[in-house]
Write a structure and sequence with these properties.
Blueprint lengths: L1 H20 L1 H21 L4 H5 L3 H29 L1 H18 L6 H15 L2 H10 L7 H9 L1 H17 L9 H23 L12 H20 L6 H4 L3 H29 L1 H5 L5 H9 L2 H18 L4 H16 L6 H22 L3 H4 L2 H33 L3 H37 L1
Helix pairs in contact: 1-11, 2-5, 2-7, 2-8, 2-9, 2-10, 2-13, 4-5, 4-6, 4-20, 5-6, 5-7, 5-10, 7-20, 8-16, 8-18, 9-10, 9-15, 9-16, 13-15, 13-18, 13-20, 13-21, 16-18, 17-18, 17-21, 20-21
Length: 447
């Protein structure tokens, strides 16, 4: 009895220390990461589009072209992380993208913007799946929904804090002789370089090397993770790195993720532009700071819902409806926002969309590491994120192009709703297939 209680105490303190020591720091890295890649959405309607003479389609292409370099190097980058260790690789990625992001301060043409967005994608490649993989290597699977939920809080909070921060930097027009949007790029890039250098010294690759854990905590964490690794490796359906690329289940997860990320980036890149359009639509006028604060509104409730939703998934055990219900809520709310009669009701409905997308994402990321381990987990997580980021490219480019063709956001937002509906349907189909496979296995073992 005492042994079990002692083990339970060691378990609790180990998970608590990981949650306090590692998760907030990796979340801070993610915060800066998401702010730097979406900074263009604040720059666009606040002087950049005008200064560089961009159409909506060109702005959409500049937003989306980022993902081409990102996609090409995603899987190789995650395999490099597996080989060289997360500490060095994540720090290297962060400093690289900080330097590229800094160069946006002096961009002079549409072509220069395309080149820098492409280079930013190449520099950032592998950071997000690397961070997911890194945190997954620190906690047993039963704690992953909770830990990834805490990590994911950084994404909606990027906009809650980042939108007013970007607006405040844009207001510093004339600082160092630069336009406001150029000051903003300068201000959001420098933290990436600084925190990247700090990460090299702060992060630890594995529990056995963590001096801030006691000997018992190190041993318990290492033993638990090794036991899980052995269980997954000995499973009949454990795929190798090569077969991950042709694994049907991995590809269904890719498509489910695609729908969510399409919605996420359609919202991230175009929400500031949609808010800027309220003046013509509803006759309301907002200054730069007010626009920044309105952009932040949907993301604060999203952070709260994300926290409680992933906590429920952790306590109850992940159910398919933890992902299906948010997908359906997003599918309905995105097109619905177009038919609201005021700025307030439009933002309210888009808040439902943000809550839907963010509540599903951390619970979604517990799925691949349930049946993948080691290098195959690195490849699988990277592949799913790669396909998701195709949605990042498509959302930027298609939303802009469809807006230019149709003269409004109606058609592009119905496309977003369609992709999120597809995610809901595929999640239910995957859940049905898993239940059938489990039933067949039980029947075979009882025979």
């Amino acid at each position: 009895m005492n042994h079990h209680r002692l083990q339970s105490e060691v378990e609790k303190s180990a998970i608590r220390k990981v949650s306090i020591r590692l998760v907030p720091f990796v979340a801070l890295m993610f915060f800066i990461n998401f702010l730097d890649r979406t900074a263009i959405s604040f720059a666009g309607p606040n002087g950049m589009n005008q200064d560089l003479g961009l159409t909506a389609a060109q702005f959409g292409l500049a937003s989306g072209i980022f993902f081409i370099g990102y996609i090409l190097l995603e899987v190789p980058s995650n395999l490099a992380l597996h080989k060289f260790g997360a500490r060095k690789w994540l720090a290297r990625i962060m400093v690289s993208w900080g330097i590229v992001s800094l160069l946006f301060t002096w961009v002079q043409s549409v072509e220069g913007l395309y080149v820098l967005r492409l280079a930013l994608g190449i520099a950032e490649a592998g950071f997000f799946p690397g961070a997911i993989l890194f945190l997954s290597m620190w906690v047993p699977s039963r704690y992953r929904a909770k830990v990834l939920g805490l990590f994911y809080l950084a994404q909606p909070l990027t906009t809650v804090i980042g939108a007013p921060l970007a607006a405040a930097l844009i207001e510093q027009h004339g600082l160092f002789g630069l336009e406001g949007w150029r000051v903003m790029f300068l201000g959001v890039s420098l933290p990436a370089i600084v925190i990247g250098i700090v990460a090299w010294f702060y992060l630890v690759d594995r529990p056995m090397d963590a001096r801030w854990l006691t000997e018992e905590e190190r041993r318990w964490l290492s033993d638990e993770l090794e036991r899980e690794h052995v269980e997954k490796s000995s499973g009949a359906h454990h795929p190798s790195v090569r077969t991950v690329m042709f694994n049907g289940r991995v590809w269904v997860l890719c498509l489910i993720y695609f729908g969510f990320i399409y919605g996420l980036y359609a919202l991230a890149f175009f929400l500031p532009s949609i808010i800027a359009g309220f003046q013509a639509q509803f006759g309301t006028t907002f200054n730069v700071i007010e626009k920044g604060l309105i952009t932040a509104i949907p993301y604060l409730p999203a952070a709260v819902v994300l926290y409680f939703w992933s906590r429920d998934a952790s306590r109850r055990g992940l159910r398919s409806w933890h992902i299906t219900l948010p997908a359906l809520a997003g599918a309905v709310s995105v097109p619905m926002a177009l038919y609201m009669s005021s700025a307030f009701s439009t933002v309210l409905v888009l808040t439902v969309t943000a809550c839907a997308i963010f509540s599903a994402l951390p619970t979604f990321w517990t799925l691949p590491t349930r049946f993948l381990t080691g290098a195959s987990a690195a490849a699988g997580v990277a592949l799913i994120n790669t396909i998701g980021n195709l949605a990042g490219f498509s959302a930027g480019y298609l939303t802009g192009a469809l807006h230019d063709l149709s003269g409004g956001y109606t058609v592009p937002m119905f496309v977003v709703g369609g992709f999120m509906l597809l995610s809901a349907v595929l999640m239910q189909l995957l859940d049905g297939a898993d239940k059938r496979a489990l039933r067949d296995t039980r029947t075979a073992s009882n025979a």
